[in-house]
Specification:
CATH class of one domain: Mainly Beta
Number of helices: 0
Strand content: over 45%
CATH architecture of one domain: 7 Propeller
Helix content: under 10%
Structural class: mainly beta
Shape: globular
CATH topology of one domain: Methylamine Dehydrogenase, Chain H
């Protein structure tokens, strides 16, 4: 047996038990824990979250508001209010302007990230939800769930330049930074690749082992897409060919995913109160941790600079009965208990 320097580990034999080695991406090095809990308050349900590394702020869509949290103090830095139903939040990389999809009003709200003042309103399709900034064309893509379309906005002019029809109901989008936009189609268990320059759908790929895909993340170096799905699976897809690479298990009721390029880890935040951590550097995409978070903590944001993950929830009560019952019943949040969980490496 060769225990040379390349192995990077030591084997210990005791009573016939072999204690194996962990790779640089193993669970021992990247074990996560809940570091802090910030009670922010506010009523109602929540949706997308965005970290702005320029200002060290966290933006959280919270019912009729967007709450802005200072990450240094964990305190509320401000609120963008007067929304009907907030969903997606995008801060343009230059930092000069931000956008919020107001699904209830069928609008995109433009705001100033420095002052949090509203700068204008752009009409979108029916129920704009997930949004993404595409840097090659310098456009904002807002995906309209009810009208099955994408509203394309010229960021500099803050005006609509196109409406792109889609074959199904869009969910979370992402962009590869090279002119392609991807979006999950929730009702077709598929993913679309769209050319941002021509604004044409280039490909539609069925997601293997995936039901109702929601959250979507992109690996720039590996050209991989990570979709979280009902049925407790993540679908990993080759972004160039649409070939399925893996379907690792995750928790129940996922809504968001993130990919940490520095550590080659994929995450799924789940309604059941878990955060699934997947080693995307290893064959088979093994789950290296299922971290207990908080019931209902289904959305999240990753700070790419620090590797810190943020998720949110509140104290929950069962929803009132309906007939027929909804496919995904949402519990009722107790007023004033809305909480941000700060998750980091131990």
């Amino acid at each position: 047996m060769n225990l040379g320097k390349k192995s990077g580990c030591i084997l210990i034999l005791t009573l016939g038990v072999v204690a194996g080695c962990l790779s640089p991406h193993g669970a021992a090095q990247y074990r996560y824990g809940v570091k802090q809990r910030w009670v922010i308050g506010g009523d109602g349900s929540w949706d997308y979250m965005t970290v702005d590394t320029r200002t060290n702020r966290l933006y959280v869509a919270h019912q009729t508001t967007v709450q802005v949290i200072d990450l240094a103090s964990g305190k509320l830095a401000g609120t963008i209010s007067g929304l009907t139903r907030s969903h997606g939040i995008v801060i343009v990389p230059s930092g000069g302007v931000g956008f919020i999809s107001d699904g209830g009003a069928n609008n995109i709200v433009v705001f100033d990230p420095a002052s949090l003042a509203k700068l204008g309103i752009i009409s979108a399709g029916a129920n704009p939800d997930g949004m993404v900034y595409e840097p090659v064309t310098q456009t904002l893509w807002a995906f309209n769930g009810a009208s099955k379309s994408a509203t394309v906005v010229d960021v500099a002019k803050r005006s609509v330049i196109a409406t792109v029809p889609l074959p199904g109901k869009p969910e979370f989008p992402t962009a590869d930074g090279e002119g392609a936009v991807f979006v999950n189609l929730e009702n077709l268990d598929s993913i679309l690749r769209i050319d941002a320059k021509t604004r044409k759908v280039e490909a539609m790929w069925k997601l293997a082992g995936c039901e109702s895909p929601s959250g979507l993340a992109f690996d720039r170096a590996g050209k991989r897409l990570f979709s979280v799905c009902d049925g407790r699976h993540m679908a990993v897809t080759d972004a160039r060919t649409g070939v399925s690479l893996a379907t690792p298990p995750i928790g129940d009721g996922p809504d968001a995913t993130a990919y940490d390029e520095k550590r080659q880890l994929a995450f799924s935040s789940n309604e059941d109160g878990t955060l699934t951590v997947i080693d995307a550097a290893k064959p088979g995409y093994p789950v290296i941790q299922s971290l207990a978070t908080m019931k209902g903590a289904r959305t999240m944001a990753l700070d790419a600079a620090t590797g810190t993950i943020y998720t949110v929830s509140a104290k929950l009560a069962p929803p009132p009965p309906t007939n027929p019952p909804p496919k995904h019943p949402r519990p009722i949040a107790a007023p004033g208990t809305f909480t941000v969980l700060v998750i980091g490496r131990e």
